[in-house]
Design brief:
CATH topology: Thrombin, subunit H
Mean pLDDT: 83
Shape: globular
CATH class: Mainly Beta
Helix content: under 10%
Strand content: 25-35%
CATH architecture: Beta Barrel
Structural class: mainly beta
């Protein structure tokens, strides 16, 4: 999660007509508050620091490829033809989107369905922090695939559960803290980590809010990291199934390392109307 993470230049819709610059500037090192995005994660190892191999199949887990070092951002299938990711993962100034979106595989580079990117729509009001002193605002983007997939999308929750609600995060980002991109490593297997909704005070003052969720881990030194940006945060619905409440955005404060503190997640239910309207109008 480098503060120079992957962020689109601004709100709007763009057709996919070729490679898109999307890797973080200054990606030579994984500095303080390294971005969870594919940008700083390049050349990294597994996903989620101190997580574990996924214990079940997540049909809606997706990855958005970034050229540099074979890195990626996470994403979530929310419709047969649309995946949701972090807005900073589609910034043409920071990295190059290349290859195909992969949906529904428990492995980073094989399996599942692969599709080209047809269109990208950034959430209104998206603002990228380039200073390393605050957070990205409205950090969500929808990616339309060139054709539908057969995997089952996840349901978006009506609202995130209260503070203390058990959650789970998924990703293919680095599993170790690393001072440089060369030291980082990505896993082949999808990683998961059981977390919970933190109180606003668990993140830096003012960081959590209506559109941002503070997330903490009961497990010491464990949290999403570089390469996990855009990936899902899930909670259990009443029927026991997983539903989507968050998308990995970055660290929950100005600090060193990815796994040493809370994570900040975009509150997906707060954008549910925008997501549904975009999908409706985009078919």
């Amino acid at each position: 999660m480098h503060r120079t993470d992957l962020s689109p230049a601004g709100p709007g819709t763009r057709s996919r007509r070729g490679p898109r610059r999307l890797l973080a500037r200054g990606a030579a090192t994984l500095g303080a508050a390294a971005v969870l995005g594919a940008t700083a994660m390049t050349g990294s190892a597994s996903a989620i620091v101190n997580g574990e191999d996924a214990t079940q199949h997540y049909s809606y887990m997706a990855t958005v490829p970034v050229e540099e070092y074979g890195a990626q951002c996470g994403a979530t299938l929310v419709d047969a033809r649309w995946v949701l990711t972090a807005a900073h993962c589609v910034n043409p100034e920071l990295a190059t989107l290349t290859g195909k979106v992969r949906v529904g595989s428990g492995h980073r580079t094989t399996g599942g369905s692969v599709r080209n990117i047809d269109k990208i729509v950034t959430a209104p009001g998206y603002v990228q922090d380039m200073t390393g002193t605050t957070y990205n605002k409205n950090d969500l983007a929808l990616i339309r695939l060139d054709r539908p997939v057969t995997q089952k999308p996840v349901r978006i929750a009506d609202k995130a559960g209260p503070v203390g609600t058990p959650t789970r995060i998924l990703g293919f980002g680095t599993v170790v803290e690393a001072p440089t991109l060369e030291d980082a490593r990505f896993p082949d297997r999808l990683q998961q980590l059981d977390t919970r909704r933190g109180a606003p005070g668990d993140c830096d003052p003012g960081w959590a809010g209506r559109t941002r969720l503070c997330t903490v881990s009961p497990k010491p030194k464990a949290m999403a990291c570089n390469g996990d940006s855009g990936g899902p945060q899930l909670q259990r619905a009443r029927n026991g199934r997983w539903e989507l409440i968050g998308a990995t955005s970055g660290p929950g404060g100005v600090r060193e390392g990815c796994g040493t503190g809370p994570g900040l997640y975009s509150n997906v239910p707060a954008f549910k109307s925008w997501i549904e309207q975009t999908i409706r109008q985009g078919h």
